[in-house]
Every structure is written in structure tokens, then in C-alpha cells.
Amino acid sequence: MTVRRIVVDLVLFVVEDLDACRRLYSAALAPLGYEELHVQADGVHYGADGMDDFAIYQGAPVTVAAHVAFAAEDRAAVDAFFEAAIASGATARGKPGVWTQYSERYYAAFVNDLHGNNVEAVWHAPEPVSDAPRRSGVP
């Protein structure tokens, strides 16, 4: 996996239905190693290794048309993210595959959350991925 400098410490989405969004994000982020780190009546923080990176809070106005990408450890984690998200109410935006406009090593999947935000899982493969579907365009 590519080692990258942390650019953004936390992303927070405001949601309308906390319970439904919690079900979606908890299921979708689990294959990526994220868990619920802090839960309160109006919000949930997710992260790995005890560090919160992403949060959802009930309120208004809701976050719409945002894009957040979560790093995945491998291709299987990207696939599992996509399946879990779809099973939990997300809609497909870009099926798992190599998104060639970014790189031959960019294996990712994209979903729309319950508010139309673009939520992505991406694995930066160490070598070009040759045995996966090729995707093009901007998801």
C-alpha cells in the first residue's frame, strides 16, 4: 500500500436519518477496518486504531454532493465495501474495477449514500491490476 501523508484529519457529514445512515456506514466501512469509535445520541465517529477519521451527525442542512474516499488494504476490501454498502441502502455509482483515468493501479468502487454523496473505497495496488474490469469516466 502506498504510504501517504494525512491531509485531512476528519470529515463530517450531516445526515437526516442517523439510524439509517449509521447502518449504511457501519456496514460499508467495516471491510475497510473502520469501526464505531464514539457514539452519542446525535452522531457517530468512525475510525481505525482508535483514531477517528469520519463522522456522521444528525442535523440540517444535510451534506449533499460531497465526495469522500476511504483507503482499502486490498482489492477484496474494496469489493466487500461495495457489496455491504449496496446491501445497506446505498446505490451504485461505479462498480469495483480499475479506474484507468486515475491509474492502472487505482482499484476502486463508488456508491451514493442516502443523501447522494459520493462515497468511495480505493486500493492503490503496488503494481498495475490486469485481471479486473476496466472502468472509465468520472464516477
Describe the overall structure.
The protein has 139 residues and is of the alpha/beta class. The protein has one domain (11-135): 2,3-Dihydroxybiphenyl 1,2-Dioxygenase, domain 1 (Roll), CATH 3.10.180. It has helices at residues 18-29, 75-87; strands spanning 11-15, 35-40, 43-48, 51-58, 67-71, 91-99, 106-112, 118-124, 134-135. A five-stranded mixed sheet has the order 5-8-7-6-9, covered by helices on one side. The chain has a four-stranded mixed sheet with strand order 1-4-3-2, covered by helices on one side. β7 and β8 form a beta hairpin. α1 (18-29) packs antiparallel against α2 (75-87). The longest helix has 13 residues, at 75-87. It is globular. The mean pLDDT is 95.
Write a brief caption for the model.
With 139 residues, the chain is an alpha/beta fold.
- Fourth-tier CATH superfamily name: 2,3-Dihydroxybiphenyl 1,2-Dioxygenase, domain 1
Derived from helix and strand composition plus strand pairing, the structural class reads alpha/beta
N to C succession of SSEs: EHEEEEHEEEE
Multimeric organization: single chain
Q: What CATH architecture do you see? A: Roll
| Total DSSP E strands | 9
Q: What is the CA–CA distance across the termini?
A: 23 Å
Number of domains in the coordinates? 1
Low-confidence stretches: none
Q: Return the CATH class.
A: Alpha Beta
CATH fold topology? 2,3-Dihydroxybiphenyl 1,2-Dioxygenase, domain 1
Q: Strand order within the widest sheet?
A: 5-8-7-6-9
Residue share in helix:
10-25%
Shape: globular
β content, as a range? 35-45%
Cα-based radius of gyration, to the nearest Å = 15 Å
Rounded mean pLDDT is: 95
Number of helices: 2
Biggest sheet statistics: 5 strands, mixed
